Amino acid sequence: RPPMVVSPRLLLPRFDTTRMAAHRALPSIVATAVMLCLAAAPVADSAATVGEHPSEHPSIDPSTLGGDVARALDHEAWARLQVLGEISDASDALERTFLSPAARRAMDKIAEWMRDAGMTTSVDEAGNVHGRVQGSDPRAKVLLIGSHLDTVRDAGKYDGALGVIVGIAAVKALVLEAAASGVPLTRPVAVVAFCDEEGVRFSSTFLGSRAVVGAIPEKVFAARDAEGKTFLDALRDGGFQGTRDAVATANLAGTLEAYVEVHIEQGPVLQDLKQPAAAVAGIS
């Protein structure tokens, strides 16, 4: 994967972004996310012809596509990060735990932004928020982009949120590019906002992503939060079915081609050392 350098606000890719005409002049967080997606799995069929696949998103006007739109997408992503950073259960710090009131507000806001990007939305039975753009090839597996919407206590506003927001922006850019070029997305592309990664409520990390790959450990179902409620209790309180069988329906492992997550180092260490960052090849 191509290396990247860390900038105070932007991830600046050391590669030519001209494959995406809309981002030609803007090495940005959105361009980086788009290029990582394209590196992970091809999403467009260059052999397709205009009119072969009618647009599923007629509300998007491709005539405005260009450098100005690229910059607008980037500024939109930045503004949304600030909005999400204000959605908190604590008055003096950022805090969102699994299915807390602030988490539910964040889920609603993320779903709204996904729909704005041309995606259909859903929430699975584990509490993960999904947005999806369907591809023209019904046999193609999904390119999944995402991160988590929960936080630790007194959190940084970009941890998790960055991966969700730039994922939404990347899909919006891909949809706009497809509409402008007449070349449809062949592969379905989806964004997921995981309900829980930090494990604050039940002292068990990665609940959302574990559900998506069908790997929730047994101890999660036995764990209780500070009020004595279990994971399934919390789901039922939140309006979900709250059964093991229902949670199992969140498993998408067999449908996925690749997963891309844009994450951030919240301190200045790599930047101060002028060290390059790169896409992670594997996590043990």
Strand order of the largest sheet: 3-4-6-5-7
Oligomer: single chain
| Beginning-to-end CA distance, first to last residue | 18 Å
Structural class estimated from helices and strands? alpha/beta
- Number of helices, where a helix is a run of at least 4 consecutive DSSP H or I residues: 9
The major pleated sheet works out as: 5 strands, mixed
Written description of the protein model:
- With 284 residues, the protein is of the alpha/beta class.
- It is built from 9 helices and 8 strands.
- It has helices at residues 29-40, 67-85, 101-116, 161-181, 207-212, 218-222, 231-237, 244-248, 269-273, and strands at 3-6, 11-13, 120-123, 129-133, 142-148, 189-194, 256-260, 277-278.
- The protein has a 5-stranded mixed β-sheet.
- A hairpin with a 5-residue loop joins β3 and β4.
- α2 runs antiparallel to α4 (161-181) and α3 runs parallel beside α4.
- The protein is globular.
- It starts with a strand and ends in a 6-residue tail after the last strand.
- The relative contact order is 0.18.
- Residues 1-27 and 46-65 have low confidence and may be disordered.
SSE blueprint:
Layout: E1 3-6, E2 11-13, H1 29-40, H2 67-85, H3 101-116, E3 120-123, E4 129-133, E5 142-148, H4 161-181, E6 189-194, H5 207-212, H6 218-222, H7 231-237, H8 244-248, E7 256-260, H9 269-273, E8 277-278
Parallel strand pairs: 5-6, 5-7
Antiparallel strand pairs: 1-2, 1-8, 3-4, 4-6
Helix pairs in contact: 1-4, 2-4, 3-4
Question: What descriptors fit this protein?
Answer:
284 residues; alpha/beta; five-stranded mixed β-sheet; 9 helices; 8 strands; 34% helix; globular
